[in-house]
Structure formats: structure tokens, C-alpha cells
Design goal:
The structure is a single chain. By secondary structure, the protein is mainly α. It is about 45% helix and about 10% strand. Strand 3 and strand 4 form a beta hairpin.
Length: about 140
């Protein structure tokens, strides 16, 4: 139920047709653009948002940094092998661990190339938000 002017309307009377007859316009807000990729304001009276793309070069730099951070996190559990090998030349790293570490570094580089190949914010956003778009990380050991 609602009141408008001096008239009370029942819940059953609160229909789309009633609101239109009273001069209201239905507004359906659009999906808000990503604050990570755009400077966003709104919603506007029509339900739209104003979205100004952020600096694409800075966004690329941030995304590359995230990839490097992820690679570092994936490598961290096996870092002790590398440290042990530098301290004791007789110790070796299992081949599957060495291959995994090489694969992580390769994928990190491939992801960096994919990110830097984006020409605008929309393309970068699509790349980052589409799960299968970036080269997948190797399966953890």
C-alpha cells in the first residue's frame, strides 16, 4: 500500500498501470560498472551510470603485479628446495617440482603478455573477468 497526494492506495492497487497513470516512470538501474576499471558515478535518473575508464597503462601494471604476486604465492611452498640446493650442492630438486616451478614462471609471463596486449580498458576488463581467457595456472603439486 502507498499514499500519493491525498489518496491512499491498497496493495492490490499498487500496480504498474497505477503508477504510470500517476505520472511515474519506471526506472530499472543498470548494472554498475566495475570500480576497479572505471571511475563510476550514479545511478542517474534513468538508471544509467557514468563510467570514465581509468588509465589503461596503470591498470595493466596493476594486473601484471597481481599475476606476479600469484606466481610468487604458487612458488613459495617449493622455495625451500631452491634454498637447500644453494646451501648444499649435493641436494637436488625433484624433477616434477622443478618442472612445476618452470611452468608457473612461463604462465606468469604468458599472462603478462596477454594483459599488455590489451588496447583499452574494456578489453582488459573482459580478459580479467572471463575465467578461461587468461592462460591457466599449472595444477599445484
Amino acid at each position: 500500500p502507498f499514499s500519493y497526494g491525498d489518496i491512499n492506495y491498497t496493495r492490490d492497487g499498487a500496480t504498474h498501470a497505477t503508477f504510470v497513470s500517476l505520472g511515474f516512470t519506471q526506472v530499472i538501474p543498470q548494472q554498475r560498472p566495475s570500480d576497479e576499471f572505471y571511475i563510476v558515478s550514479g545511478p542517474n535518473a534513468d538508471g544509467s551510470y557514468n563510467a570514465t575508464p581509468r588509465d589503461v597503462d596503470q591498470l595493466k601494471e596493476n594486473q601484471v603485479s597481481k599475476q606476479k604476486s600469484t606466481a610468487g604465492s604458487l612458488l613459495a611452498p617449493s622455495d625451500w628446495y631452491v634454498i637447500r640446493m644453494t646451501e648444499d650442492p649435493e641436494c637436488t630438486c625433484p624433477p616434477e617440482v622443478a618442472q612445476y616451478r618452470a611452468d608457473v614462471r612461463t604462465v606468469s609471463g604468458q599472462r603478462e603478455v596477454q594483459i599488455n596486449a590489451c588496447v583499452d580498458v574494456a578489453e582488459l576488463e573482459a580478459l580479467i573477468k572471463t575465467p578461461a581467457a587468461l592462460t591457466p595456472w599449472p595444477e599445484e603439486l
